Amino acid sequence: MKYKLTLLGLLFSFFVVAQSKNQTAVIDVDGVCGMCKSRIEKACLQTKGVKLANWNVETHQLKLIFNNQKTDLDAIKSNIASVGHDTDNYKATEEAYMSVNMCCRYRDEKVVQEHK
C-alpha cells in the first residue's frame, strides 16, 4: 500500500511539473482578413514550442499557448513580424510587409476601410 501511494505521489508530481511548462498569452497583431489570420497563425505554429495560436480578425487579438521552456513571446512576435505583421514591439520590415497580398496591407487606411 505504501508503495502504491509513493508511486501515485511521484506520478502526480510529474504531471504538475509537466503542466507548468505551458504558458498562455494574448497579444495584439495587426491584420485585416482571413488570409492574415492564416499567415499569422502559421508563423506562430512554426515556432518551436507553440501549441496553439488563434488570431481573431475583428479584435486583432492572438491567443497563444506555448511551452516556455522552448520559446518565449519575443521569438513568437519576431516570427510574426517576419511574415509581414506588426505586434506591439515588433514591426515588420518594409520588405516583409510588402510581401503580403494587396488586400492584407493593414497599414493602408483604404484597405482597412474596405474590410469593415
Give an overview in words.
It is a single chain. The protein is of the alpha+beta class and 116 residues long. It has a single domain (21-114), classed as 2-Layer Sandwich (Alpha-Beta Plaits). It has helices at 2-19, 34-45, 73-82, 94-98, 109-114, and strands at 22-28, 50-55, 61-67. The protein has a 3-stranded antiparallel sheet with strand order 1-3-2, covered by helices on one side. 22% of the residues are buried.
Could you provide a short overview of the structure?
The chain has helices at 2-19, 34-45, 73-82, 94-98, 109-114; strands at residues 22-28, 50-55, 61-67.
List the total number of helices.
Answer: 5
Rounded radius of gyration (Å): 19 Å
Dominant shape? elongated
Task: Kindly provide the name of the CATH class.
Answer: Alpha Beta
Structural class: alpha+beta
Query: Might you state the CATH topology name?
Result: Alpha-Beta Plaits
Summarize the helix and strand pattern as letters.
HEHEEHHH
The second-level CATH architecture is: 2-Layer Sandwich
Average of per-residue pLDDT values: 88
Strand % is 15-25%
The poorly predicted ranges are none
* Count of separate structural domains: 1
Percent of residues in helices comes to 40-55%
Counting DSSP E segments of at least 2 residues, the number of strands comes to 3
Largest sheet: 3 strands, antiparallel
Oligomer: single chain
